[in-house]
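Bench notes, bay 3.
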Amino acid sequence: MTFTHRRTVLTALATAAVSGPLLGSLTAPPAHAAGDLDIYTSNTDLYTQLAGEEGVEFARRYRRHAYADASLSQTYPYNRTTVMAMHGGGIEMGTSELCLAMAGYHPDTLVPLADGHGVHDYWMFEGLRSSGNRDLHVTAKNCDDHVAISMAASSLNVLSLHGCTAAQAGTVPKAVVVGGLNTRFKTLLKSEFDLIGVAWRDGNEVPDLAGVNPRNPVNRTMLSKGAQLELTTDLRAAMFGTNTRAGRAGSTTDEFDRFVGACRTAITKLHQDTDQIIL
């Protein structure tokens, strides 16, 4: 098992800009695959065992935007991207609020953002317990929620948000692991993170956080590929003035806004690619 001493990381940061190549030189310690610690084998298993507890123990929130084309001669817009937080609420803190904002909605008021990037569909599973929310974790490849799967299958792209620790990622404290099977999407995200000074590591270097399983909803899109972000605990904590389930949505920081803006810009650029056109 190889560890990177914290002092070594700080020394490197003092002499170099925080970027992908720096993080790529670090070695992540082995981490448990998320499924090894799961109590429930699937979302269906969780919903069955906790029947009647939705709204108390857990919640599901999603939004599918209405699109219509009743014209014989003209083509109208269609949904391209869905944003997901499979372990929101108290499970992987901050991912619910990030999901809403990246989909184009203020996480507190749900008012659409006026940043010119439009709105996207979203789906979230959230832990509502006062403690012990980790027990509600269902690893992504075992997610069989019918709404989540159908939304991924009808989208060209999925951006999936998760939380990890810096030790799991093998990174500096505030960083993000960029995974998934859509290499173009990953490249766009990493470029935007460089512009705002957010440290990143490629998921290919961290197998447990890579998001490359074809059963993972992030890759169950019309293109069979998507992008997954694993944000470290420290990075997520810096995005909120009040880091509680009740307080996060109304206390987002400039760091939150910069990160959301970077991701939304990457999505907009992705939509300009040739494979984003449905013939």
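Next record in the batch:
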Amino acid sequence: MEKKVQITGFGGVDRLTVSADAPAEPGPGQIRIRHDAIGVSFIDIYHRTGLYPLPLPATLGVEGAGVVEAVGPGVTRLSPGDRVAYAGAPVGAYASTRFLPEARAIRIGDDISSQLAAASMLRGVTAHMLLTRTYPVGPGTTILVHAAAGGTGGLLVRWAKHLGATVIGTVGSPHKAALARTAGVDHVVVGRDADIVGEVGKLTDGLGVDVAYDGIGGDMLLKTLACVRPFGTVASIGQAGGPIPPLNVEEIGPRRSLSLARPSFMAYSADMKRYRAAAEAVVAAMRQGIASTVGVTYALDEAARAHADLEAGLTTGSPILIP
């Protein structure tokens, strides 16, 4: 049976409902993709809770991979049978099939699995944004990555190491520390209550890192600011650990002389020229082994459990849904 997962109101995982769906014919400039795999990310959780509100009812999901099943009038670049992946707007990936603008779909070859592509597209474009636009990372750069065993964190580690950076990663457990080391982390700080500021200070001879990526939020952001050298950059990219409290500008400068970035994947991927360049770079990176680790796989109608596990910090790598 064709399925889709929607919300009709904002709130907990109980707001996710599974219903029957029926494929329709794509309109001008659209393709219909039959999903093999669908990515699950914190953006989906933020949409479900209303932090990033959507018009209701809404089908969640901003990334997936599968096969082009039908094309609408004016589609010239893709044909039925092509394997594609995508990330970004319009929202609506939690479905067996969906419409997608032709320009959003990126062709993938048979050397890249749909599961790997669905796990890596959003996080890969995010990593591209963070490593090239937010702060140019290269040889000699020292970076701090929180949740280094997660989907985004692990991919950031792999790509940064490929660019020649030294990587310090934080994780919540020894098991996740082992996964972070497999991804290539040079130094791991373990434990939710670890003295992150002190450890980073020791590892950098008191200088601090050049750039830090904080997707934890909550009270972690202030700690992250204290880990960065003067004239370095902090990228606040999420709040998995809770809302970000108000921040006094004095926490950034002039004493620390920091740059604080709040970059958005959705904003970065909204520019189609920029998105396609980043997405093609992600596909090329996947071919070099720079990708997210496919985490737990769930059936599409288990989306609520996937959300609950991701929110509770029970996942490693990138969780995906299988229609």
